[in-house]
Fold this sequence. Notes:
- This protein is an all-alpha fold.
- It has two domains: 2-234, no CATH class; 240-486, no CATH class.
- It has helices spanning 2-27, 29-36, 39-60, 63-73, 79-103, 105-111, 121-144, 148-172, 178-202, 209-219, 222-234, 236-243, 246-256, 260-280, 286-316, 338-360, 367-389, 391-416, 423-446, 451-467, 473-486, and strands at 319-321, 324-325.
- The protein has a two-stranded antiparallel ribbon.
- Helix 11 (222-234) packs parallel to helix 17 and helix 15 packs antiparallel against helix 16.
- The longest helix is centred in the middle third of the chain and has 31 residues, at 286-316.
- The protein is globular.
Amino acid sequence: MFDKLKELSKDTAVYGISTILGRFLSFLLVPLYTNVFTTSDYGIFAYLYTILAFMNIVYIYGMDVAFLKYASLAEEKQKKDYFSTPYIVVMFTALMATVVFYLYRTPLNHALDIPSQYNSLIVYLILILLFDTLCLIPFANLRLQRKAGKFAAIKILNITINLILNLVLILKYKFGIEAIFISNLVASASTFVVLLPEIAKLLVPRIDKEVFRKMLKFGIPYLPASIAAMMVQMIDVPILRELTNDATVGIYRANYKLGIFMMLFVSMFQYAWQPFFLNNAREKDAKELFSKVLTIFVVVGSIVWAFVSLFIKDLASIEIYHGRTIIGQEFLGGIYIVPIVLLAYLFYGMYVNFTAGIYIEEKTKYMPYITSAGALVNVGVNFWLIPYFSYWGAALATLASYVVMAGGIFYTAQKFYRINYEYKKILYNFLLIFLTFAVYYWLVEVGKLSLWTESLVFVLFIGLIFVLRIISIGEVKKVLSGFGTKV
């Protein structure tokens, strides 16, 4: 068992590093976009990519998950049927949808309220959807075969092609936002071509009706849960656009992207956390260890939050080329939502932490309900606050949804796997965060935010963590050594 857990940890690390690297490389395009495109252009790009994210879920309708379940149980002689059946069906439905959307692209543009100068983008969008969909089951097969290295290499190749083409088309050939879509389309098509040998190995021209029936029955219920999860992440974009305009969406999403610093921290923790708690679940001091992990996660996350929140305007305003700053000048007005976005991701990290009890006690059936609650809160708070606070309302809606999800998963997990967390220390930590919140926005309001005051507040923040005895150096070393030796 220990060897298998080590294998899991190794694969998790590969998937995790490739995912984190991919997100970081994608983030590198934000300075380019915000210095070249207008806020309205960026808003259109953000809106269309939100639609793309939702449609990716609809196009696959849970068949990738169903493939993983049934193909993993199939005998060797059944492997080709269990790959071919869902792949052929998904390919057929994706091709049909592509043809329909292409033929009706003009009314589709009107329905999506796309300005006429951007009408051609819908063609790129539907082709990206097609190629991305054709790659999902082959990627799932690579995971099933434990080809983590190949999986990661192809993903990184996709992102590299996308990144290079963006730079060439925008900087050399002076393309507008269509460069983003052309680059993505070429990258997605290239990924499909690279995966063709993997597809050819398993694809046979037949559909097993019984296999399809049970896969569809298993996969379809994942559709609403996946849509709910995507709503938590991205429903703010279409709502904000409906209630304001493209320029506001552009400012919001560009600054929302700066939450990547907390997102990467949470992602790294997430990839390490699951194999860690599974490996330690049977230890006699497991619950005590998990409690300490939460405390340390919250403390480290709060330090990341404080540093990025206090210094992000200075970092974003650094001049990189002839008056061009890391985040374009037009977008900097929205920089003050970043602390809210970072805090939202911190609560998401707590949600990830609380999933330990759910997995250990096999109560994952509750998770879609919790995600759906988060999605509903997100929608409600967006419609409530955006008319009054514009993109601030969207940021607060994201925070509210992750707070609800963290609270929901905590309540559920505690019912089945009670852990005595260090509530007093965590409370002190969040009081410290909210105090820093208040000081930060007061400094902004009175115009006293400077590198000196930011540094002073950050030093005081770190100092109070130790003065209040929220954490000690020894505790940090103990838990980190546990991750190092047991994962």
